[in-house]
Amino acid sequence: MRPLIVANWKCNPSTFADAKKLFTAVDRGAKGKRATAVICPPFVFIPGLSALKKKNIKLGAQDAFFQEGPFTSQISAKMLKQFGCEYAIIGHSERRALGESDEIVNKKIKAVVSAGLCPILCIGESGQEREEGKTKEVLERQLGLGLKDISRFKIQDSKLTIAYEPIWAIGTGNACDTDRAKEANIIIRKTMTRIYGKSAANKVKIIYGGSTNPDNALGFVKEAGMNGLLSGGASLDAKKFIAILSKF
Ligand code: PGA
What we know:
eight-stranded parallel beta barrel; 8 strands; binds 2-phosphoglycolic acid
Protein backbone atom coordinates (compact mmCIF):
# COMPACT_ATOMS: atom_id res chain seq x y z
CA MET A 1 0.00 0.00 0.00
CA ARG A 2 1.26 3.48 -0.83
CA PRO A 3 1.36 5.48 2.41
CA LEU A 4 -1.40 8.05 2.73
CA ILE A 5 -0.28 11.31 4.32
CA VAL A 6 -3.18 13.63 5.11
CA ALA A 7 -2.79 17.30 6.06
CA ASN A 8 -5.52 18.60 8.33
CA TRP A 9 -5.13 22.37 8.26
CA LYS A 10 -8.03 22.81 10.73
CA CYS A 11 -9.02 26.51 10.98
CA ASN A 12 -5.79 27.77 9.37
CA PRO A 13 -4.28 29.81 7.74
CA SER A 14 -6.25 33.02 8.11
CA THR A 15 -5.82 34.34 4.54
CA PHE A 16 -6.33 32.77 1.14
CA ALA A 17 -2.96 34.19 0.05
CA ASP A 18 -1.23 32.12 2.74
CA ALA A 19 -3.32 29.06 1.89
CA LYS A 20 -2.27 29.36 -1.75
CA LYS A 21 1.38 29.72 -0.81
CA LEU A 22 1.30 26.66 1.42
CA PHE A 23 -0.66 24.59 -1.10
CA THR A 24 1.66 25.36 -4.02
CA ALA A 25 4.79 24.84 -1.92
CA VAL A 26 3.53 21.42 -0.81
CA ASP A 27 2.54 20.51 -4.37
CA ARG A 28 6.06 21.34 -5.56
CA GLY A 29 7.65 19.47 -2.67
CA ALA A 30 5.47 16.40 -3.16
CA LYS A 31 6.83 15.79 -6.66
CA GLY A 32 8.21 12.31 -7.07
CA LYS A 33 7.25 11.20 -3.57
CA ARG A 34 5.96 7.67 -3.05
CA ALA A 35 3.31 8.68 -0.53
CA THR A 36 -0.10 10.02 -1.56
CA ALA A 37 -0.47 13.52 -0.08
CA VAL A 38 -3.95 14.87 0.64
CA ILE A 39 -4.53 18.47 1.74
CA CYS A 40 -7.68 19.24 3.75
CA PRO A 41 -8.06 23.03 3.95
CA PRO A 42 -10.96 25.00 5.47
CA PHE A 43 -14.08 24.83 3.25
CA VAL A 44 -13.85 28.43 2.02
CA PHE A 45 -10.44 27.85 0.46
CA ILE A 46 -11.45 24.70 -1.41
CA PRO A 47 -12.86 26.31 -4.61
CA GLY A 48 -9.85 28.63 -4.97
CA LEU A 49 -7.30 25.91 -4.28
CA SER A 50 -9.02 23.42 -6.56
CA ALA A 51 -8.73 25.96 -9.40
CA LEU A 52 -4.93 26.01 -9.04
CA LYS A 53 -2.89 23.64 -11.12
CA LYS A 54 -1.76 20.89 -8.81
CA LYS A 55 0.13 17.85 -9.94
CA ASN A 56 1.29 15.97 -6.91
CA ILE A 57 -1.32 16.38 -4.20
CA LYS A 58 -5.00 15.62 -3.71
CA LEU A 59 -7.71 17.69 -2.12
CA GLY A 60 -9.91 16.71 0.80
CA ALA A 61 -12.36 18.31 3.23
CA GLN A 62 -12.36 18.37 7.05
CA ASP A 63 -16.01 17.38 7.26
CA ALA A 64 -19.08 16.84 5.05
CA PHE A 65 -22.73 17.12 5.95
CA PHE A 66 -25.11 14.25 5.21
CA GLN A 67 -28.01 16.16 3.70
CA GLU A 68 -28.90 19.20 1.62
CA GLY A 69 -31.75 21.60 2.41
CA PRO A 70 -32.58 23.70 5.46
CA PHE A 71 -29.29 23.16 7.33
CA THR A 72 -27.73 26.58 7.87
CA SER A 73 -23.95 26.66 7.42
CA GLN A 74 -23.56 23.03 6.37
CA ILE A 75 -21.66 21.82 3.29
CA SER A 76 -22.66 18.54 1.68
CA ALA A 77 -20.45 15.76 0.37
CA LYS A 78 -21.90 16.30 -3.12
CA MET A 79 -20.92 19.99 -3.09
CA LEU A 80 -17.37 19.09 -2.12
CA LYS A 81 -17.11 16.55 -4.90
CA GLN A 82 -17.86 19.29 -7.46
CA PHE A 83 -14.80 21.21 -6.29
CA GLY A 84 -12.40 18.35 -6.75
CA CYS A 85 -12.39 16.95 -3.23
CA GLU A 86 -11.54 13.27 -3.23
CA TYR A 87 -11.40 12.70 0.53
CA ALA A 88 -13.37 13.81 3.59
CA ILE A 89 -12.30 13.60 7.23
CA ILE A 90 -15.27 12.53 9.35
CA GLY A 91 -15.65 12.37 13.14
CA HIS A 92 -12.53 14.27 14.10
CA SER A 93 -12.33 14.50 17.90
CA GLU A 94 -12.46 18.31 17.69
CA ARG A 95 -15.89 17.94 16.05
CA ARG A 96 -16.98 15.24 18.48
CA ALA A 97 -16.03 17.64 21.30
CA LEU A 98 -18.56 20.08 19.81
CA GLY A 99 -21.31 17.48 20.10
CA GLU A 100 -20.97 15.30 17.01
CA SER A 101 -22.31 11.87 17.95
CA ASP A 102 -21.45 8.45 16.52
CA GLU A 103 -24.88 8.51 14.89
CA ILE A 104 -24.09 11.71 13.01
CA VAL A 105 -20.65 10.36 12.10
CA ASN A 106 -22.40 7.30 10.64
CA LYS A 107 -24.75 9.43 8.53
CA LYS A 108 -21.84 11.47 7.26
CA ILE A 109 -19.79 8.40 6.34
CA LYS A 110 -22.75 7.05 4.36
CA ALA A 111 -23.21 10.39 2.55
CA VAL A 112 -19.51 10.64 1.75
CA VAL A 113 -19.44 7.11 0.36
CA SER A 114 -22.51 7.66 -1.79
CA ALA A 115 -21.08 10.94 -3.14
CA GLY A 116 -17.98 9.02 -4.24
CA LEU A 117 -15.53 10.59 -1.82
CA CYS A 118 -13.10 8.51 0.25
CA PRO A 119 -14.00 8.73 3.94
CA ILE A 120 -11.34 9.14 6.62
CA LEU A 121 -13.05 8.06 9.84
CA CYS A 122 -11.32 9.40 12.96
CA ILE A 123 -11.50 7.40 16.16
CA GLY A 124 -9.51 7.48 19.39
CA GLU A 125 -9.69 7.47 23.16
CA SER A 126 -9.31 10.37 25.57
CA GLY A 127 -6.54 10.53 28.18
CA GLN A 128 -8.94 9.44 30.88
CA GLU A 129 -10.24 6.50 28.85
CA ARG A 130 -6.65 5.44 28.23
CA GLU A 131 -5.86 5.56 31.96
CA GLU A 132 -8.98 3.53 32.71
CA GLY A 133 -7.87 0.87 30.22
CA LYS A 134 -10.81 1.55 27.91
CA THR A 135 -8.97 2.10 24.62
CA LYS A 136 -10.15 -1.17 23.04
CA GLU A 137 -13.73 -0.62 24.12
CA VAL A 138 -13.76 2.95 22.72
CA LEU A 139 -12.25 1.95 19.38
CA GLU A 140 -14.65 -0.97 18.97
CA ARG A 141 -17.63 1.20 19.83
CA GLN A 142 -16.65 4.05 17.51
CA LEU A 143 -16.04 1.63 14.64
CA GLY A 144 -19.25 -0.31 15.22
CA LEU A 145 -21.46 2.78 15.45
CA GLY A 146 -19.62 4.90 12.89
CA LEU A 147 -19.87 2.17 10.25
CA LYS A 148 -23.28 0.82 11.27
CA ASP A 149 -25.36 -0.59 8.38
CA ILE A 150 -22.65 -0.06 5.80
CA SER A 151 -22.29 -3.27 3.83
CA ARG A 152 -19.12 -5.24 3.21
CA PHE A 153 -19.41 -4.38 -0.52
CA LYS A 154 -19.63 -0.66 0.21
CA ILE A 155 -16.62 -0.87 2.51
CA GLN A 156 -14.67 -2.75 -0.13
CA ASP A 157 -15.34 -0.08 -2.75
CA SER A 158 -15.21 2.98 -0.51
CA LYS A 159 -11.43 3.30 -0.09
CA LEU A 160 -12.18 3.79 3.59
CA THR A 161 -9.38 5.01 5.82
CA ILE A 162 -9.53 4.76 9.60
CA ALA A 163 -7.45 7.37 11.42
CA TYR A 164 -6.41 6.35 14.92
CA GLU A 165 -6.10 9.64 16.73
CA PRO A 166 -5.73 9.33 20.50
CA ILE A 167 -7.18 12.60 21.78
CA TRP A 168 -4.42 13.07 24.36
CA ALA A 169 -1.83 13.10 21.57
CA ILE A 170 -3.49 15.71 19.35
CA GLY A 171 -1.74 19.07 19.29
CA THR A 172 0.11 18.29 22.50
CA GLY A 173 3.57 17.50 21.16
CA ASN A 174 3.16 14.23 23.05
CA ALA A 175 2.76 11.66 20.29
CA CYS A 176 1.66 8.11 21.02
CA ASP A 177 4.57 5.68 21.26
CA THR A 178 4.82 3.19 18.44
CA ASP A 179 4.06 0.16 20.64
CA ARG A 180 0.77 1.65 21.72
CA ALA A 181 -0.01 2.74 18.14
CA LYS A 182 0.69 -0.82 17.01
CA GLU A 183 -1.72 -2.20 19.62
CA ALA A 184 -4.43 0.19 18.41
CA ASN A 185 -3.70 -0.75 14.81
CA ILE A 186 -4.20 -4.45 15.66
CA ILE A 187 -7.44 -3.75 17.55
CA ILE A 188 -8.80 -1.79 14.56
CA ARG A 189 -7.79 -4.41 11.98
CA LYS A 190 -9.24 -7.24 14.10
CA THR A 191 -12.50 -5.35 14.66
CA MET A 192 -12.82 -4.61 10.95
CA THR A 193 -12.10 -8.28 10.14
CA ARG A 194 -14.74 -9.42 12.61
CA ILE A 195 -17.37 -7.12 11.09
CA TYR A 196 -16.47 -7.30 7.40
CA GLY A 197 -14.30 -10.38 6.86
CA LYS A 198 -10.64 -10.50 6.02
CA SER A 199 -10.66 -9.45 2.42
CA ALA A 200 -12.73 -6.28 2.93
CA ALA A 201 -10.89 -5.42 6.17
CA ASN A 202 -7.52 -5.73 4.48
CA LYS A 203 -8.49 -3.11 1.90
CA VAL A 204 -9.00 -0.49 4.62
CA LYS A 205 -6.10 1.84 5.36
CA ILE A 206 -5.31 2.53 9.01
CA ILE A 207 -3.35 5.71 9.65
CA TYR A 208 -2.09 7.47 12.78
CA GLY A 209 -2.61 11.09 13.85
CA GLY A 210 -1.48 13.10 16.88
CA SER A 211 1.66 15.26 17.12
CA THR A 212 3.33 13.72 14.09
CA ASN A 213 6.51 15.35 12.83
CA PRO A 214 9.42 14.53 10.50
CA ASP A 215 11.26 12.73 13.32
CA ASN A 216 8.52 10.35 14.41
CA ALA A 217 6.69 9.90 11.06
CA LEU A 218 8.49 6.83 9.79
CA GLY A 219 8.18 4.93 13.09
CA PHE A 220 4.39 4.86 12.84
CA VAL A 221 4.62 3.14 9.48
CA LYS A 222 7.69 0.93 10.01
CA GLU A 223 7.18 -0.04 13.65
CA ALA A 224 3.45 0.39 14.26
CA GLY A 225 2.44 -0.91 10.82
CA MET A 226 0.30 2.11 9.99
CA ASN A 227 -0.58 2.86 6.36
CA GLY A 228 0.07 6.56 6.74
CA LEU A 229 -0.48 9.63 8.88
CA LEU A 230 -2.93 12.42 9.60
CA SER A 231 -0.96 15.51 10.40
CA GLY A 232 -2.28 18.75 11.91
CA GLY A 233 0.27 21.25 13.23
CA ALA A 234 3.17 20.00 11.12
CA SER A 235 1.09 20.27 7.94
CA LEU A 236 0.91 24.07 8.30
CA ASP A 237 4.64 24.34 7.70
CA ALA A 238 5.47 23.39 4.10
CA LYS A 239 9.03 22.37 4.96
CA LYS A 240 7.94 20.11 7.81
CA PHE A 241 5.13 18.51 5.82
CA ILE A 242 7.41 17.89 2.83
CA ALA A 243 10.02 16.45 5.23
CA ILE A 244 7.33 14.02 6.47
CA LEU A 245 6.44 13.07 2.88
CA SER A 246 10.12 12.54 2.10
CA LYS A 247 10.41 9.84 4.75
CA PHE A 248 8.48 7.34 2.63
P1 PGA B 1 -1.69 17.37 15.33
O1 PGA B 1 -3.19 17.17 14.86
O2 PGA B 1 -0.79 16.77 14.28
O3 PGA B 1 -1.51 18.88 15.42
O4 PGA B 1 -1.54 16.72 16.65
C1 PGA B 1 -3.61 15.98 14.28
C2 PGA B 1 -5.09 16.02 14.02
O5 PGA B 1 -5.82 16.59 14.82
O6 PGA B 1 -5.57 15.48 13.01
